[in-house]
Design brief:
This protein is of the alpha/beta class and 204 residues long. It is built from seven helices and eight strands, in the order H-E-E-H-E-H-E-H-E-E-E-H-E-H-H. The protein has helices spanning 9-16, 46-56, 74-87, 102-108, 146-157, 178-188, 196-203; strands at residues 24-30, 36-42, 64-67, 90-93, 111-120, 125-133, 139-144, 163-166. The strands form two sheets. Strands 3-4-7-6-5-8 form a six-stranded mixed sheet, with helices on both faces.
Length: 204
């Protein structure tokens, strides 16, 4: 998170002192001059998340964008994954190698549906690989160029013991929310990569 934005010195210092993954409510504040600021309100407890969720009710879509690298922190996951699921739909952004999580799907015998979609943006053309394991509510997604997305799908298909169906039928239930999520993601993330664990190592 620290590498994605230009922070003022105080906020940068505060983020640098945090060891666990950060939970924040993110919004875009647009001014009358057309400029915009991406604002993050750090949430220190699940109770603060519940309060934000309650205040946001009726104002528009609400979803969690959850980097997959956060899930490697077991203590954080045990504390936050339940409240995040209660807050609303969650999309896991794949910022680590597939080998770090698809093996667990295969070991559990979970069937996975996976497919690629084209993402239109005013500045560039993107693709998204989307995965949905039958025993998890989260949609897993990687946004990249078309070649990378096709390679990810091929790698997933080759995972030993994994039951994988190539389809986009799993996106039907996400059709109302996904356009808003992708628009917000591309407007607020300066880059997307698979170096999430490197970021954790640098901050640990």
């Amino acid at each position: 998170m620290r590498s994605l934005y230009r922070w003022n010195p105080r906020d940068a210092s505060q983020l640098g002192a945090l060891e666990a993954p950060v939970v924040a409510a993110r919004t875009i504040d647009a001014t009358s001059t057309g400029e915009s600021t991406i604002e993050h309100a750090l949430l220190g407890t699940p109770e603060e998340l519940a309060a934000v969720t309650e205040r946001w009710a009726g104002r528009g879509p609400l979803a969690t964008l959850l980097p997959a690298s956060c899930l490697t922190d077991r203590t954080w996951q045990e504390r936050w994954i339940g409240p995040l699921r209660s807050a609303g739909p969650a999309i896991v952004l794949i910022d680590v190698e597939l080998d770090r999580f698809v093996g667990s799907w295969a070991n559990r015998g979970a069937a996975v549906r996976a497919g690629a979609i084209h993402v239109a943006d005013t500045s560039a053309s993107y693709w998204a690989a989307t995965f949905l394991a039958e025993d998890q509510p989260e949609l897993w997604m990687a946004v990249a160029d078309e070649i990378t997305v096709r390679l990810l799908l091929e790698q997933l298909q080759r995972t030993p013991g994994l039951h994988c169906e190539q389809t986009t039928s799993h996106l039907t239930a996400w059709s109302d929310l996904l356009p808003s999520v992708l628009t917000h993601l591309l407007a607020t993330e300066s880059f997307l990569d698979f170096e999430g664990m490197a970021d954790h190592a640098a901050s640990g």
